[in-house]
Amino acid sequence: MKVLENESLKKYTTFRMGGNAKKMYFPENIEELTSLVNNNSNILKYIIGGGSNLIINDKKDFEEVLCLREFNTAIENKGEGHFYIGASVRLQKAIKTVNSAGYGGMEFLFSVPGLIGGALYMNAGTGRKTHKYISDFVVSVDVLKDGKICNISKDECKYDYRKSIFQDDTGCVILGAEFLFPEITAEQAKKGIDDRIALCKKTQDMTYPNFGTVFCVSNTKIMDVVRKFHFGYKNGCTYSPKRKNWMLNRENGTFDQAIKLLNKVKKMHKFFKKECKCEVRIWE
Ligand SMILES: Cc1cc2nc3c(=O)[nH]c(=O)nc-3n(C[C@H](O)[C@H](O)[C@H](O)COP(=O)(O)OP(=O)(O)OC[C@H]3O[C@@H](n4cnc5c(N)ncnc54)[C@H](O)[C@@H]3O)c2cc1C
Question: Could you tell me which of 95, 87, 77 has the C-alpha nearest to residue 122?
Fold first, then answer.
């Protein structure tokens, strides 16, 4: 198993921010992962997949970080729309493979720069209006918990908007999942992907590193004001002037800046007695 020492976490996040991992582990199979977890349960505190939904403290040295990018990259076609997909598979690869077998439905995730494990943890999907989620296709999820592999049914995953049971259970590693996809034509698959890419090009702000949507619960009017004034720091972290509910790291952004900007918006919500909840995960 690859183990890196004093590895900068910055390059593992799409927001390009983070301190060092004193030790960063890259298990390549279930045996390596199990022995790692059995010898040290602290290892489960900081798990990173694609790193596309994370703000990591840039002043902190993290003792141990578990990186699941090289863990399980297998996709098994089990027939009749059933697929087993490993936690380390990129969403784009999963979609393309399923499509090439004549199945699909998950093309709306083609724009998401994460892995299957992270997407199952976050219940990645579209916004509330179109409400399409990875969980729509989940049959069950395999996790490593207390040193044992457990199969969790979709119901037990308690999926909701950007919510899963895994967010409440810090001692569990997502290993992979069984999915069931409907049959679709190659044209439908292509259209699904093309439409998603076109929509994201038009609406998202990719001018600087980011982590996608900031808050999974927020008030539209407040977020409109935040976008209009795009509070932030010159050459640092700032809210996007283009896309509502979106933060950018203009090259020299710091963790302190990002947290101040998050808190500012939370305070605005509190002042107007509106609900507000972070979507992005924060490693303090
Ligand atoms: C440009 C851009 C566009 C985006 N668009 C969308 C979108 O349309 N819809 C959407 O929902 N999200 C979107 N996101 C956010 C993000 O890509 C998703 O939340 C994605 O599912 C996160 O996956 P990841 O592998 O990068 O997870 P990470 O960022 O690595 O981790 C996220 C959380 O999951 C945990 N985790 C990761 N893997 C595992 C595992 N195997 N076992 C246990 N815990 C694990 C981590 O500890 C962390 O708490 C976007 C982000 C960007 C940068």
Answer: 87
Rounded-to-integer distance, Cα 145 and Cα 30, Å? 12
CATH code assigned at 140? 3.30.465.10
The tens digit of pLDDT for each residue in 165-174 reads 999 977 899 9
What's the rounded Cα separation, in Å, for the pair 39 and 143?
18
Atom of ligand 1 nearest to the CA of 206: 1
Range of the domain at 29: 2-67
Using one digit for the tens of pLDDT, what is the confidence trace for 210-261? Answer: 999 999 999 999 999 999 999 999 999 999 999 999 999 998 999 999 999 9
65 lines ligand 1 (CB under 6 A): no
Q: What local confidence, expressed as pLDDT, does residue 170 receive?
A: 76
CA dist 98 and 7 (Å) reads 35
Ligand 1 center to 247 CA (angstroms): 15
Residue of the CA atom closest to atom 49 of ligand 1: 281
Asked whether residue 86 falls in the same domain as residue 171, the answer is: yes
User: Cβ(139)–Cβ(178) under 8 Å?
Assistant: yes
Are residues 112 and 138 both part of a single domain?
yes
Mean per-residue pLDDT pooled into runs of 10, the chain (284 residues): 97 97 96 92 93 98 96 96 98 98 98 98 94 98 94 97 92 96 98 97 97 97 95 95 97 96 98 97 97
- Co-location of 13 and 52 in the same domain: yes
Q: Both 57 and 107 in a single domain? A: no
Claim to verify: residue 113 and residue 164 sit in the same structural domain: yes
Separation of 157 CA from ligand 1 center, angstroms? 17
The reply to whether ligand 1 has any atom less than 6 angstroms from the CB of 85 is: no
Q: Is the CB of 281 under 6 A from ligand 1?
A: yes
Query: Residue 281 Cα, ligand 1 centroid: separation in angstroms?
Result: 9
| CA angle (176, 180, 185) in 5-degree steps | 120
* 51 within ligand 1 shell (Cβ under 6 A): yes
